[in-house]
Design brief:
It is a single chain. Strands 1-2-4-7-9-11 form a six-stranded mixed beta sheet, with helices on both faces. Strands 5-8-10 form a three-stranded parallel beta sheet, with helices on one face. A two-stranded parallel ribbon has the order 3-6. By secondary structure, the chain is an alpha/beta fold. The chain has one domain: 2-enoyl-CoA Hydratase, Chain A, domain 1 (Alpha-Beta Complex), CATH 3.90.226. It contains ten helices and eleven strands.
Length: 249
């Protein structure tokens, strides 16, 4: 069963996460998203990619923790590597990428959003967070490097060590999102699509290359760091916290 849909309109493609009820990420979803990103990267007619969670109340809950809890360590590691590789592909894309954050974006969902060039969040009670610390988990060095380029070191410390669920107001204050939009306001994204999709693909690629991290090796997470993350994940203290997480399906 497909959990990713996409719609192409001229030079713009909208990718929709479609795994009810909270767009939780597992290996199947990430594999599908990764394959689609590769396909679109090779499509010369596409200038703009928009990633959204559709009509769900969640952009993405992040990794499907209850499902991950029963995985063998090697399969969990494979899932984490796929999440990191997907984020890296989005970050390195030669297209303009936008997250249309239609609802809550936490953990891995926030990681996907951070990987895009721009983030626009619905102006309601939805929250965004890298809240791993609250469930006893650390975070990946590549994600932290990307976060620092967006909000700076000071704000990164507050976001990561506080682990708070951020309102749109606070996310704007940190610079975590670029703007907000009102529900059912189609004109907002129509204007954005019109602005970006008409740009020169050659100019987009060149400018994006110049704007990326000066040291792209920072996007490569050391195996030792992944193993440390897994050690923390399987520690007794963290396992007890993770077992309290329930996703109603």
């Amino acid at each position: 069963m497909s959990h990713i849909t996409h719609d192409i309109n001229d030079s713009c493609v909208t990718i929709c996460l479609n795994r009810n009820p909270v767009n939780a990420l597992n290996l199947d979803v990430l594999n599908e998203l990764n394959d689609l990103i590769i396909e679109l990267e090779n499509a010369s007619n596409i200038n703009l990619i928009i990633l959204t969670g559709g009509n769900n109340k969640f952009f993405s809950f992040g990794l499907d923790i209850p499902e991950l809890l029963v995985l063998e360590r090697d399969i969990l590691k494979k899932t984490l590597l796929m999440l990191l590789d997907t984020c890296k592909k989005i970050y390195l894309s030669s297209k303009i990428t936008i997250s249309k954050i239609n609802g809550h974006a936490t953990g891995g969902g926030c990681m996907l959003a951070l990987s895009t060039d721009f983030r626009y969040m619905i102006n309601n009670r939805s929250k965004i967070a890298l809240n791993e610390i609250n469930i006893g988990l650390s975070l990946f060095s590549s994600t932290i490097e990307i976060l620092k380029t967006i909000v700076g070191v000071k704000n990164s410390k507050e976001i990561l060590l506080g682990g708070n669920m951020l309102t749109t107001t606070k996310a704007l204050e940190y610079g975590l999102i670029n703007g907000t939009y009102e529900e059912n306001d189609d004109s907002y994204f129509t204007s954005i699509i019109k602005e970006y999709s008409s740009k020169s693909s050659i100019a987009i690629k060149d400018l994006k290359n110049s704007l990326m991290l000066s040291d792209l090796s920072l996007l490569n997470d050391d195996d030792s760091k992944l193993e440390l993350f897994l050690d923390i994940f399987y520690s007794e203290e963290t396992q007890e916290k993770l077992k309290t997480i329930i996703i109603k399906k």
